[in-house]
Batch of 3 targets.
Target 1
Amino acid sequence: MRPKPLLHARDALDQLLLNHERVRTLLRQFDRLRWADPSAPGCRAELLDSLCDALTLLADMEEDFFYPAARRVLRDNPPAPAAFCDHARLRGLIAQLDEMPPGDLACNALVSDMDGCVSPCMDAAPSGLFVAVRLAGLDTRALGLQMALWRRDQLARTQTLKRVAHPEGSTWLAASGWPQPLCGG
C-alpha cells in the first residue's frame, strides 16, 4: 500500500511518520552521494537544502502541535524526557550547515550529527510516544487536521516557484514544501 501524500494524511501520527520517512530518505541519499561522488557540490547543495527544510518542518510540527498536545494528554503519566527530540541541538546543527559551502567536508560530520540527533527519536516514537498518546486518548485526527492546515499555509506562503539553475543549464521548478534534490537518489 502506497503512503498517503502528506497533505492528505488525516492523522497527526501518520503525518509525523511520513515526515520521519522523508528525513530518513534524505539522510540515505546524502550518505550515498557522499560516498559515490564527494566532489558534486551542486547536488550536495540541493540535497542539504532539502534535508534542512525537511528537518525544520518536522521540528516545527512537533514543537508547535504534537509535543504540546502530547504533554496535555500525558500530564498524569509523563513519558521519559528522551521521548521528545532535542530540537535546540538540531536547530544549531542546521544553522551551522547553512553557513558552510556544500563542498566543505565538515558537512559530512554535521549531517552525521543531525542523524544521531533525530534518528533515535524517530525510531522510538512509533512504539513509545505514539502508542502512549493514542492510549491516553489524544484526538490524532483533529490534531492532524490542524497540522495539515498549518502545512498548507506554510506552502501557500512559499508557493512562489523558485527557479534554480540546473548544472546542465535546464531549469528546475520547486515549491518550497518538499523540495526534491536535482540529483537522483
Target 2
Amino acid sequence: MDVKLLITYDPAHTESSMERIEHLFKEIKAKPKFLKSKYHGIFLLDVSKPKELVKKLRAISKKNRELFGKTYRYVPIDKWVKSTVPDMQKAVKSLVPRIKKDEKWMMDIEKRYYDRLDFKELIVKLTDVVDREKIDLKKPEKIIKVEIVGKDAGISLLEPDEMLLV
C-alpha cells in the first residue's frame, strides 16, 4: 500500500471532510492523493513527508480548530503489514532500534474492523517485542503507533508532535 497518512473523519460528512482536507493541504502547499478506502470514516492518502505535513497541520489546528471540520486523527504511517500478531510484532520490533535506551516511550493502538484479539491482548503481545524499559503513558518521547484496519495494520514510530488528534 502507498498509504502514508491515515485520516479519520465522521462518515456522515465524507464530502465536506474531503474538501476540508484539500483546503488544509493547499494551505501548507501539499498535494494529497486520496487512495481508495473500503472503510467508512477513514481516508487513506499518499503524500510526501507525512510527518512534516502533520507538524504543519498541528500549528494550524492550534490557531483554528474549526478549519478541520469533522476530521479527527491525522496519523503518518511508516509501514503496512498484515494484521496478524506475528506480522505486527515483526514490524514493531523493527522500530525498536530507533528508540534510544534512555528514551521514554508508549504504544498507542487503534483497531477498526478487527475482532481477532481484544485491546488488552494486543497491547501485551505487541509490547512483548519491545526491550526498552522507560514506559511513559503521559509524556513519551516516542510513540509506537499501531493502526489496525481490517486485515492490514499501519505501524509507525512517531514523536508526539508528528500525530494530530483534533
Target 3
Amino acid sequence: MILNNKINVVLIVILTFTILSASAQKKNLAYYQCAFFESYRVGNMVPWPGLIAEMEKVKSTDLAWQTEMIKAMYGLVGYQLGAKNKDLARAYVNKGDIHLEKLLKSYPRNAQLHGLAGAFYGYKIALAFYKAPFFGPKSMYHIEKSIELDPSEPGGYIEKGNSLLYRPVAFGGDKKEALAYYKKALKLMEASSDQKCNWQEMLLRAFILKSLYETNQTAEAEALMKEMQKDYGSMSWIKEFVGASLIEGK
C-alpha cells in the first residue's frame, strides 16, 4: 500500500512537471504575438505590461524575440499617450531606448530597428514638444535609413506616415501624403508577412481608416470599417481611435 502511494506521488510529480513544461513551451514568440493581438482586438491593453515583463525576464538574445518585445513597447506607449498617461508612456520609451541602443550597435543595418528608433524619437517629441527641433531630425534620419536599407520593410513607411499625419501643416504635415505611405506599408505587410496574429497590421489599418475620414474620403472609409469589423469583430475602441465626430459625420 505504501509502495503504491509512493508510485502515485511520483507519477503525480512527473505529470505536473510535464504539464508545466508543456505550458512553458507554449510561450514561444507566436504565443506572445497572439496574446498581444487578441488583447488589442478587444481593446483591452491591461495584459500588455505583464506580457512585456514576461518577455523581458526570458532575457532572450534572439533578434526576432527582442524586436517583438520592442514593438509591444511601441504599441503600449502609443496607447498610454492616447490615454494621457505620460508617465507610463515615458517609462516604456526609456525601456525601449535601452533595448534599441544595444540592438542597433549589433545590427546597424537592420531596417526594422531603424524604423522603431524613428518611432521612439517621435514619442519623445510627443512627451516634450519643445524638444522637436532636436529629436525631429533624429527621428527622420532613422525613418529614412529604414527605407534606404530595405524598401520592402513596412516600418519606415508607417513612421513616415505617422510623422506626416500628426505634424502640423505649418511644419510640413500632410494627411493625404500620410495616407499614401500607410497604404504602401499595408501592401508590403500583406505581401511579406505570414504572421498569424499581427496586431501591427490591425493598427496600420486603423491609421488608414483615420486618414480616410480626416481627408473626407467617407465612402472608402466606411467600406474599410466594414471590412475591419468582419476581420476583427466589433472593434469597440475604433471610434475613440479615429474620433467619434469624424465617423458620425458631425
